[in-house]
From TrEMBL:
Name this protein carries in UniProt: Outer membrane protein assembly factor BamA
PANTHER family: SORTING AND ASSEMBLY MACHINERY SAMM50 PROTEIN FAMILY MEMBER, TRANSLOCATION AND ASSEMBLY MODULE SUBUNIT TAMA
Bacterial surface antigen (D15) domain segment(s): 500-769
Listed transmembrane segments: none
Main location: membrane
Record's subcellular location: Membrane
Coiled-coil region(s): none
Any single GO CC term annotated in Swiss-Prot or TrEMBL for this entry: outer membrane
InterPro entries found in the cross-reference section: Bac_surfAg_D15, D15-like
Keyword field: Cell outer membrane, Membrane, Signal, Transmembrane
């Protein structure tokens, strides 16, 4: 009772603190002007008049940031006021990195903005543009109005070029249609000229012109003077020659690839010990003595005799870095003499630390349980001297009931242990076939093996062995394929001999899942689109779609050897004396990332999957580990993982206290899942304890269901079993809805995440009682006490805290 009172006290304090903070922020939002001097004003609005609508947003970007007002819905300024005011004034020292200071009027910045907007309009073809600025101040609040007189737009009338080198002229002409933004009749735009210059530079560097520079490309502009009587412009493109003659194309000579002795780099003494043997145009010198030649030189795309192409240089950089064994890659070139058209390549590689060890842990808890998980991961990035990555992970944890005066970990009801290892080779190892890939990303072959042990006190023990081979390769930089042609799983479990017989009968489906012994032999395929854009602020669609199929091959083998079995009558076919699983499990994760400017982003996500058993598993169903769950730090964050559904399932329907206690903590699973998430992300503070502090607000919706009768933990009660089945007509009443806010501490390489989720709608209840937010706002204590009395040892929590590493999606 002391512990429960303590928890209630914590919840009350948290609610009070949140409400108090909200009130303070509201007050601060209305009072920025009182912290500034009498001669100062805060900019509340900036308006740009008489600018073409298609250029308004770009023109606004030329307004100096320090005089741009924050959005009316933003809490950045109130946060800044909360932490950076003292004695009725803004602090001038010891500034805390929270929020953003208000936009204080500065006439110098207004003039700079006016000039920049005017230059921008002229660059867009309004050669006679003039911009004036007006400032209106009232009650220490300022409004800035930039009024433009753009004048007539200038258009391109004629295009010509002066390219004395015939080879370059032909190269430009053959590529012009695909690269140019310039055409007669278009409005003059300096950005189009810059783009043309950049494209010509790129084409030259891709076609052997190693020493070509951007300044060799320039334009003559005729008729663009503001005093011109016509609004037509003639453009002439120039690609000039260097002072010492014409531009030349260069071939790649030999490549000298040198690996430093250690991560400290190259000492001067090594230059006299270089290898002299050339194999396939490459001289390989490894002063560290750690690496085999072929796995490294395989990703040198600067081949002897090929025309120099900057794309191959960038490709070599990317792949050598992706081997994950070098901390620095440097590519230089040199000519033996000034008359040669060959450039030799020198690739200097500095190795990084080969071995690493990482310890991770978490403490999952709710009102009725506490536990911990701890894991250790050892990594060797060069175990066979060919950039093969070996990883060994050991992980264990337990969960304990608390409450009713019990001490933490005095009543442990769940124990988990796993050990896994994998070897990842940076190429596709396919028998009788050796594909050369890597143009868009590093291909990998991964051999993995793992053992999992799970104990549910007084209920069951499960053991699982898993072995697999997986191939990963890139079709393009944005399209990743992952294919597992061999996925072998051997699972065996048994029920605790002391488990109550009535408990087994009332939870027959769960008991069957936990106690089964079987084999799985199948394959998996996953397609991923735009994963390379996840850390960028841009608008795009992300897709991850996969299929897991098992049992078809074993079904064929059992038919050939005459052991078909009779699955419909609970007599499945067997291999090596064990039944095998047969199912298909498609899953899709679809997201829309919308960039809202700056570091603001909106994400909408749909995650759905189905697990369908057939053939040899038509009665035994989907394996326990292959079923879906809802909730958790990357799902519906107002619930702990595996505590939602299926459907309208309510643990209170298990009327026996003994029964509920025996199955306390068992996962609530289903053979179908639908989840949607909506999240708004923004930056709170750029510099916060050496990192960036970001915030998020979210709404999560979803649940899990069963596809067929008999797949529920309530199989012994057909009426209750029906509540777990997916029915489109009942979808709305079976959805869980949660909301919340979160903080992300971004240290560049890691993101530490803390989310607070609040339940809005809980499908385990009926009718209007599902909207538990009303109970949270009024009568929360009585509601929780009533729930605990009928669902114990389960306890109800309106708020769920989630800690994690990395973004939720």
């Amino acid at each position: 009772m002391i512990l429960k009172a303590y928890q209630n006290s914590i919840n009350i304090k948290l609610k009070s603190t949140a409400i108090l903070l909200f009130i303070i922020v509201l007050i601060q939002a209305c009072s920025s002007t009182k912290y500034i001097a009498d001669y100062q004003s805060i900019v509340k609005q900036v308006t740009i008049d008489s600018v073409d609508a298609k250029f308004e947003e770009q023109a606004y970007n030329y307004v100096q940031k320090d005089i741009r007002p924050a959005s009316k819905l933003s809490i950045q300024v109130p946060l800044y006021n909360l932490f950076n005011t003292k004695d009725g004034r803004y602090k001038t020292s010891d500034i805390k990195p929270f929020g953003t200071p208000p936009a204080i009027l500065d006439s110098t910045l207004v003039e700079i903005s006016r000039t920049q907007i005017q230059k921008f309009l002229k660059s867009k073809g309004y050669r006679q543009a003039e911009v004036k600025a007006a400032i209106q101040v009232a009650d220490k609040k300022a409004e800035i109005v930039f009024t433009a007189k753009p004048g007539p737009a200038y258009f391109i009338d004629k295009l010509s070029d002066s390219i004395p080198n015939p080879n370059i002229k032909n190269l430009y002409k053959s590529n012009r249609a695909a690269i140019t933004h310039l055409h007669t009749g278009m409005q003059y735009d300096e950005d189009s000229l810059t783009y043309e210059r950049e494209q010509i530079y790129r084409i030259m560097k891709e076609n052997g012109y190693f020493y070509f520079l951007r300044p060799y490309v320039n334009f003559d502009v005729y008729g663009a003077e503001p005093t011109s009587k016509t609004n037509k412009i003639d453009l002439n493109l120039n690609v000039t020659n260097p002072n010492d003659g014409e531009h030349k194309q260069f071939d790649i000579g030999y490549t000298h690839m040198i690996i430093a002795p250690n991560p400290d780099g190259f000492p001067d003494s090594v230059r006299y010990k270089l290898n002299k043997d050339t194999v396939n145009g490459i001289i390989f010198t490894d002063f560290s003595k750690r690496y085999r030649r072929n796995p490294i030189v395989r990703y040198d795309f600067l081949k002897q005799g090929d025309l120099y192409d900057i794309r191959n240089e960038n490709l070599t950089y990317d792949r050598l870095y992706e081997l994950n064994i070098f901390k620095n890659v440097k590519i230089d070139y040199y000519r033996r003499d000034s008359t040669s058209n060959k450039i030799n390549t020198v690739i200097q590689l500095i190795p990084q630390k080969v071995m690493s060890n990482r310890v991770e842990g978490e403490v999952p808890f709710n009102g009725g349980t506490v536990g911990f998980t701890i894991g250790n991961t050892y990594t060797n990035n060069n175990i066979f001297r060919g950039a093969e990555r070996f990883e060994l992970q050991v992980k264990g944890g337990l969960q304990s009931r608390i409450g009713n005066g019990a001490k933490p970990f005095s009543d442990i009801y769940q124990r988990d242990f796993s050990i896994s290892s994998s070897i990842t080779v940076p190429r596709l190892m396919i028998p009788f076939y050796n594909p050369v890939l890597g143009g868009n990303g590093m291909p990998h072959t991964t051999f993995a093996s793992s053992y999992i042990y799970a104990l549910q006190k007084d209920v069951s023990v499960r053991r699982i062995f898993i072995n697999s081979i997986t191939y990963d390769w890139f079709e393009t930089k944005s399209k990743l394929h992952s294919f597992t042609p061999l996925n072998f799983e051997y699972r065996f479990g048994y029920l605790d001999p002391n488990v109550d017989e009535q408990t087994v009968l009332n939870n027959l489906y769960y008991s069957t899942l936990l106690g089964r012994k079987d084999l799985t032999l199948g394959m998996k395929y996953t397609y991923t689109l735009n994963a390379n854009k996840l850390n960028e602020y841009r608008s795009f669609v992300y897709l991850r779609a996969g299929m897991d199929i098992a049992g078809n091959m074993l079904q064929g083998v059992s038919s050939l050897i005459g052991k078909k079995g009779d699955p419909a009558n609970n007599n499945p076919a067997r291999i090596f004396g064990l039944p095998f699983n047969q199912y298909m499990r498609p899953e899709v994760d679809l997201r829309w990332y919308k960039h809202l400017g700056g570091e603001r982003q909106f994400i909408a996500r749909l995650n759905a999957g189905v697990a369908y058993a057939y053939g040899n598993s038509v009665l035994t169903g989907i394996p326990f580990e292959k079923q879906f769950f809802a909730g958790g730090s990357s799902g519906i964050r107002a619930w702990q993982a595996r505590t939602i559904g299926p459907g309208n399932y309510d643990r209170g329907l298990l009327r026996s206290d003994t029964l509920r206690r025996a199955f306390f903590g068992l996962d609530q699973l289903g053979t179908m899942r639908i989840e949607t998430n909506f999240e708004y992300r923004f930056t709170v503070a750029k510099k916060f304890l050496g990192a960036t502090l970001k915030g998020a607000a979210f709404v999560d919706i979803g649940n899990v269901w069963n596809l067929r009768r008999g797949e529920s933990i309530l199989v012994s009660n057909p009426a209750l079993d029906e509540q777990t089945i997916f029915r489109l007509s009942k979808l709305a009443q079976q959805l869980a809805v949660g909301t919340g806010v979160g903080l992300r501490y971004d240290v560049q390489y890691f993101v530490f995440r803390f989310d607070v989720g609040l339940k809005l709608k809980d499908p385990q209840f009926a009718g209007s009682d599902q909207w538990v937010i009303s109970k949270f706002l009024s009568g929360a204590s009585d509601f929780k006490n009533s729930y605990n009395a009928t669902h114990g040892p389960d306890t109800y929590r309106f708020i769920q805290y989630n800690f994690g590493i990395g973004m939720p999606f």
